């Protein structure tokens, strides 16, 4: 193909780059943008507060939480459940009262009808006999649903009195179970394991722990832990080691490398790590912003 000049603006094709540029400047159309490393929490940060954990605990699925934030989350959910339960019971009690009131009104109407019928038994019987005679004479073979005055009894949607009343949507009984905000599974504090980090001993680094770039290391191999290094938590002791250490040292004999304790597969919890800015990690780094779309 013939090469175009660098600043050629006479192209007959509306290129993809031009479409993206015009879409971003016009304010219409859905935008897809890659999320950077700074927008993703680190591996040692709480999944709720997105800050370094003071008292870290890990869920059976490998999500890290700060114990204080986790307890506050559970208390908030329990308070919300109590509020919804009160509203549900209030609405249920109101419905029961309405049903009881309708029952009393229906009973009273039956009593009134009975009294009227007692007072006008003879008159009603005579009227009924006269009407039945007339109907038998005029419409003996008629099977139409509009005959014998039935046309006035049929409901009409366009008549306001026959339109169904709009009622408040019934509330469902709230669920008492508290679910994990990350995995969606039932949240139980007894299933969480306290995490024991191994601090990096660097005498030359006098910065605060929250500001340090390298804060923790593997409890066995002393490799630096980061978002790029897969790690696991040993359930029995809470120590954090690298996945490579687990594959090469523990998986052969299933013995704890620090105290020699017997381990099983259930004692190993893969730690969910953050993103590094590359697509090889376990985090989707694609952000989407939905905006109005112009259609021809």
Describe this structure as you would to a colleague:
The chain is α+β, with helices and mostly antiparallel strands and 296 residues long. The protein contains 4 helices and 10 strands. The chain has helices at 16-26, 67-119, 121-138, 243-253; strands spanning 31-34, 56-58, 64-66, 193-194, 198-199, 216-217, 231-234, 240-242, 268-271, 286-289. The strands form 4 sheets. The chain has a 3-stranded antiparallel sheet with strand order 3-2-4. Strands 8-7-9 form a 3-stranded antiparallel sheet. Strands 1-10 form a two-stranded antiparallel ribbon. The longest helix has 53 residues, at 67-119. GO terms for molecular function: ubiquitin protein ligase activity. Residues 155-237 form the Ig-like domain. Its main location: nucleus. Residues 78-108 form a coiled coil. It is found in: Nucleus.
Highlighted features:
three-stranded antiparallel sheet; 31% helix; nucleus; 296 residues; 4 helices; alpha+beta; ubiquitin protein ligase activity
Topology of helices and strands:
Layout: H1 16-26, E1 31-34, E2 56-58, E3 64-66, H2 67-119, H3 121-138, E4 193-194, E5 198-199, E6 216-217, E7 231-234, E8 240-242, H4 243-253, E9 268-271, E10 286-289
Antiparallel strand pairs: 1-10, 2-3, 2-4, 5-6, 7-8, 7-9
């Amino acid at each position: 193909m013939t090469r175009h000049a660098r600043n050629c603006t006479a192209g007959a094709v509306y290129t993809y780059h031009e479409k993206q540029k015009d879409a971003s400047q016009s304010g219409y159309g859905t935008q897809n943008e890659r999320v950077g490393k700074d927008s993703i929490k680190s591996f040692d940060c709480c999944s709720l507060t997105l800050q370094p954990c003071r008292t870290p605990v890990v869920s059976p699925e490998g999500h890290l939480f700060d114990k204080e934030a986790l307890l506050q989350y559970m208390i908030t959910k329990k308070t919300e459940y109590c509020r919804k339960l009160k509203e549900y019971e209030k609405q249920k009690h109101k419905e029961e009262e309405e049903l009881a009131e309708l029952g009393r009104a229906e009973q009273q109407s039956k009593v009134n009808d009975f009294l009227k019928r007692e007072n006008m038994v003879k008159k009603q019987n005579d009227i009924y006999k006269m009407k039945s005679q007339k109907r038998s004479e005029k419409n003996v073979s008629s099977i139409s649903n509009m005959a014998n005055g039935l046309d006035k009894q049929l409901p009409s949607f366009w008549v306001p009195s026959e339109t169904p009343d709009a009622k408040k949507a019934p509330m469902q009984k709230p669920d008492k179970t508290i679910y994990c905000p990350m995995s969606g599974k039932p949240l139980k504090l007894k299933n969480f394991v306290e995490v024991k980090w191994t601090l990096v001993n660097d005498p030359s680094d006098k910065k605060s722990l929250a500001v340090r770039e390298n804060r923790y290391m593997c409890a066995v191999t002393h490799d630096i832990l980061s978002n790029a290094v897969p790690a696991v938590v040993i359930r029995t002791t809470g120590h954090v080691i690298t996945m490579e250490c687990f594959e090469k040292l523990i998986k052969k004999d299933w013995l704890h490398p620090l105290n020699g304790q017997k381990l099983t597969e259930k004692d190993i919890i893969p730690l969910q790590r953050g993103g590094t800015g590359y697509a090889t990690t376990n985090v989707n780094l694609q952000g989407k912003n939905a905006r109005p779309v112009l259609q021809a």
